[in-house]
Automatic annotation (TrEMBL):
<keyword id="KW-1133">Transmembrane helix</keyword>
<dbReference type="GO" id="GO:0005886">
    <property type="term" value="C:plasma membrane"/>
</dbReference>
<feature type="transmembrane region" description="Helical">
    <location>
        <begin position="135"/>
        <end position="160"/>
    </location>
</feature>
<feature type="transmembrane region" description="Helical">
    <location>
        <begin position="266"/>
        <end position="288"/>
    </location>
</feature>
<keyword id="KW-1003">Cell membrane</keyword>
<dbReference type="Pfam" id="PF02653">
    <property type="entry name" value="BPD_transp_2"/>
</dbReference>
<keyword id="KW-0812">Transmembrane</keyword>
<comment type="similarity">
    <text>Belongs to the binding-protein-dependent transport system permease family. LivHM subfamily.</text>
</comment>
<keyword id="KW-0813">Transport</keyword>
<dbReference type="InterPro" id="IPR001851">
    <property type="entry name" value="ABC_transp_permease"/>
</dbReference>
<dbReference type="GO" id="GO:0022857">
    <property type="term" value="F:transmembrane transporter activity"/>
</dbReference>
<protein>
    <submittedName>
        <fullName>Branched-chain amino acid transport system permease protein</fullName>
    </submittedName>
</protein>
<dbReference type="GO" id="GO:0006865">
    <property type="term" value="P:amino acid transport"/>
</dbReference>
<feature type="transmembrane region" description="Helical">
    <location>
        <begin position="242"/>
        <end position="260"/>
    </location>
</feature>
<feature type="transmembrane region" description="Helical">
    <location>
        <begin position="215"/>
        <end position="235"/>
    </location>
</feature>
<feature type="transmembrane region" description="Helical">
    <location>
        <begin position="60"/>
        <end position="82"/>
    </location>
</feature>
<feature type="transmembrane region" description="Helical">
    <location>
        <begin position="181"/>
        <end position="209"/>
    </location>
</feature>
């Protein structure tokens, strides 16, 4: 029973991490109809920025805020300076651009911040909670991770369902020509979409880094698992992204805990292929996108 609870709680924490990255992919997909494969190295760069601030000031929360702000600026700059020049030239061009950016940011981070392993602090304890005389296999930072993902989910749902800005972002993504005729500043909405997605991605980078070692490639595996989580829940659904991340985290945790840790990547691949074969739109997809 103890092993089961440990595996379960570990899976929930791991799933929340995957969900945070899946939310970033979901946000940029909903707001720009682009899958940004450079999301992970962008988050890695902003995490390093936050670490530099933390080491210089001794304040975790100041570094946390600066990292999120850096994500916003970086996302906006990437859209304005790079992505905008290939918009309308085909979806494949943007995908290739993000893959190239993936490689370039790794090299840039190694040059600026170095390739050595560096310890990233956590704002809360990393020891299991003690409840009712029993040790619980979840840390205060794990609780913080789950709560942070829940807050981001609520904010994204409110953004797209209850605000004019969210409606304009989706209109700019789905039909930019019609949106322009209706007075929507399409360029500004696309920039905002990239900026907000980078903020969520930066949060994912901070959650993954907390209490661990960081180096330029520390988020590379998250690209795979976060993408699988987003596809599992549905790239167009924030709720689906979180549910997909939690499901994937639980599945991989139980496979690692009861079968073999070496099978975790294979299991993720099986989940991805199974979803694409059975329900390509994801578990929370409602209707297929209509194409003219």
């Amino acid at each position: 029973m103890q092993q089961f609870m440990t595996t379960l709680l570990g899976g929930l924490t791991l799933g929340a991490v995957y969900a945070s990255f899946a939310l970033a992919l979901c946000l940029i997909w909903r707001s720009t109809r682009v899958v940004n494969f450079a999301q992970a190295p962008m988050a890695m760069v902003t995490t390093y920025v936050g670490l530099e601030v933390i080491e210089a000031t001794g304040s975790y929360w100041l570094g946390f805020a600066v990292a999120l702000a850096a994500g916003f600026v970086l996302g906006a700059l990437v859209e304005r300076l790079l992505v905008r020049h290939v918009e309308g030239a085909g979806d494949l061009n943007i995908v290739i651009l993000t893959l190239g950016l993936f490689v370039a940011l790794h090299g840039l981070a190694a040059l600026v911040f170095g390739s050595d392993y560096r310890s990233f602090p956590a704002p809360f304890g990393l020891k299991g909670l003690h409840v009712g005389g029993h040790n619980v296999a979840i840390t205060p930072f794990g609780v913080f991770t789950i709560v942070a993902v829940g807050i981001v989910l609520v904010l994204l749902v409110l953004l797209f369902r209850s605000t004019d800005v969210g409606l304009r972002m989706r209109a700019a993504a789905f039909s930019p020509e019609v949106a322009r005729l209706l007075g929507v500043r399409v360029g500004a909405m696309l920039t905002l979409g990239w900026a907000l997605a980078a903020v969520v991605g930066s949060l994912a980078g901070l959650l993954i880094a907390g209490g661990n070692l960081v180096f330029p490639q520390y988020m590379d595996s998250v690209v795979v698992y976060g993408f699988v989580a987003a596809v599992l829940g549905g790239l167009d659904s924030p709720v689906g992204s979180v549910v997909g991340g939690l499901i994937l985290g639980l599945v991989l945790s139980f496979v690692s805990g009861y079968v073999a840790g070496d099978l975790v990547p294979v299991t993720a691949l099986i989940v991805l292929v199974g979803v694409l074969l059975v329900r390509p739109g994801g578990l929370f997809s409602h209707v297929a996108e209509r194409r003219v």
